[in-house]
Amino acid sequence: MQEVLTAGRYFRKHFNCNVYKTPISILGFTCPNIDGSKARGGCVFCENESFSPNLGIQKPKGFLLNHTSVENPFIASQLVQLESQFNQTKKILAKKFKAKKFLVYFQSFTNTYAPFKTLKALYDKALSFEDTIGISIGTRADSIEKEILEYLSEKAKTKEIWIEYGIQSVYNETLEKINRAETIEDIEKQIKLTRKYGIKVCAHLIFGLPGETQEMMLESVKKAIELGVESIKIHPLYVVKKTALANDFKKKQFTPISEEEYIDTLVKTIKLIPKEMMVQRITAGISDDSLLSPFWCNNKHRQMYNIKEALKKEGYEY
Q: What's the total number of domains in the chain?
């Protein structure tokens, strides 16, 4: 049985203990295809709170950061928020999973879309936490400045530094359909540049995007491998309320991927991935009433069981 290099296996190998990511949601952050600098409305599937368990506090009214922000009057409260979320999540993970070390994960929105001074303060704070081995930063390829890459490159000499780029698909027609406001050419260029700085890259891909066939999904996987990313995250496209995709679904203009096709595509993906590439995620879902479809995404435990069983039949252990 061939073991898939999961995040747990990767970090235990490097740190000889259980290492877990602590998801962080910093209020005041947004995205260039939400605030109008590139587009409005965000990606068609985006209702950010669906993916961000720590977004429980109302954001400062009328305040959103971007690269050109001159001042950040809320940096002190953001730093407090960061520490509070980290400590709460750390306690839970230590008790539930016997976690000993932690990777601070800036998860919600575009976490490099802010002035350098703000980002440096947040990243420095996160790296100072006890038992923290590094940080992982979720962002877009069009929203990270050279100054940040240089800063993170220095940190990467002694810490685990990851940038998580949302690729989603390598087809520009798909990216246009989902209102991504990026091209695959620009994404590829940024990933290559990031890796030149010695920073590890995790690529996010979504299976079941509008109009995509299994062949197209697997082509996106192949491109991520070709780019040499160190890790990959994959999940199905599911429909939640208060999104543009929800409107298309209600009009019968979008049909979500079936569990059977998703698992089949995932098994074929695992066969393509090199043994040394970390697979951080293989599915996702949401169990509350905001989920509209597909209903097989409402129970992650059942999803994981079905996926693991399918992988076992092909000689893989996740």
A: 1
Confidence at residue 56, expressed as pLDDT on a 0 to 100 scale? 47
- The rounded distance, in Å, linking the Cα atoms of 206 and 238 is 10
| Non-local CB neighbours of 50 within 8 Å, separated by 6+ positions | 240, 286, 290
Range of the domain at 133: 2-317
Q: Which residues have CB under 8 Å from 304's CB, separation 6+?
A: 282, 283
pLDDT in tens, 206-227: 999 999 999 999 999 999 999 9
Q: Three-class SS string for the chain?
A: CEECCEHHHHHHHHHCCCEEEEEECCCCCCCCCCECCCCECCCCCCCHHHHCCCCCCCCCCCCCCCCCCCCCCCHHHHHHHHHHHHHHHHHHHHHHHCCCEEEEEECCCCCCCCCHHHHHHHHHHHHHCCCEEEEEEEECCCCCCHHHHHHHHHHCCCCEEEEEEEEECCCHHHHHHCCCCCCHHHHHHHHHHHHHCCCEEEEEEEECCCCCCHHHHHHHHHHHHHCCCCEEEEEECCEECCCHHHHHHHCCCCCCCCHHHHHHHHHHHHHHCCCCCEEEECCCCCCCCCEEECHHHHCHHHHHHHHHHHHHHCCEEC
CA-wise closest residue to 122 among 70, 165, 90, 79 = 79
* Residue 204 token pair: 């996010």
Q: Assign residue 195 the CATH number of its domain.
A: 3.30.750.200
Q: Which amino acid is at 271?
A: K
**Tens-digit pLDDT profile for residues 251-282:** 999 999 999 999 999 999 999 999 999 999 99
